[in-house]
Batch of 2 targets.
Target 1
Amino acid sequence: MPATKEEIAAFIAREFPQTKCTVLEAGNAGATVAHEVGPAELRPGGTVSGPVLMATADVALYVAILAEIGIVPLTVTTSLNINFLRKPEASARVVGVCKLIKLGRSLAVGEVSLYSEGRSDVVAHAVGTYSIPSKAR
């Protein structure tokens, strides 16, 4: 049974209180999340760190999948490949827009375009695969 944006946001807030990602949209085989950026997320040179971009992509994939299959906590990342394309804005949230490419019984594959909020240039592109527990589908 699919999960709503509100259900997913509540689940993430409860189970992942350390995340700085917020759920903006979820459903229709996709999701949009945003990650706050502050001094702790920057690396020397004033750019957003790679781990922040990777975390945003990972959360966007997770949200997109949960929106389709429901809250299944043990749905886990099996691979994540990211290409860093240009320097993100240090003063803007990172926005991850995910589109699921395949949603099968045991695996889901999706792609995420990452942006600096308010900009149209993609700063990074990720493709990830998640494993779905057998009892979930």
Target 2
Amino acid sequence: MSDAREELSRRIAGEITLSDDPGATLRKWRTDFDVSQTELADQLDVSSSVISDYESGRRESPGIGVVRRTVDGLLDIDEQRGGGRLRQYARVLSAGFESDIVHDLREYSTAVSLEAFYDAMGATEVVRGDQDHVNGHTVINSIEAITRLSSEEFYRLYGQSTNRALVFTGVTRGESPLVAMRVVSPTPNAVILHGIEDSELWEHAADLARVDQFSLATSTKDLDACLADLQAL
């Protein structure tokens, strides 16, 4: 686990340092770990206003030393809670899938509103879940994923961020991917079923989304156009 922690620490620190908006990227990772500004400030023994100022850009962008200390603070808090986030990240650090299964797997430098993601996908929302943003996306060929991936590999499709959107392509009714989603915990912020209209959706799809509290949408937009617009997010 220590190797996974060090690798994850380097990746997060690098993303924050190289970001055009380090404060927004820091905020993305803090919220992804479900850590409040107050909790992080207490862990680092600083005032909450220091964290707020960095995230809002009111304070000069943090240097690498501050970034590493902040990242270590997030990971320390997670370990104090039992290491749930770190264990999930450890599962996906070496994730690799064939391109005919996963069309795209991407992390964003800052959180993207669900509405902006829907715009890129040309999606129609069926159910609104608990979250209004996504921190990354994975676009999956639903048939290939369900027939060729083990449950562990399916779980690793999350990528590095838990607060993401999963897009299933090649969908006819949505039953298979949504049933498969029941083994995934925690659930993604949003699931988009690509290839069908909302009127063609499996009759129990909306109920499953409500039970697991994720947003559910459909899209019939050309897949290549979707992928191009997602890359621009």
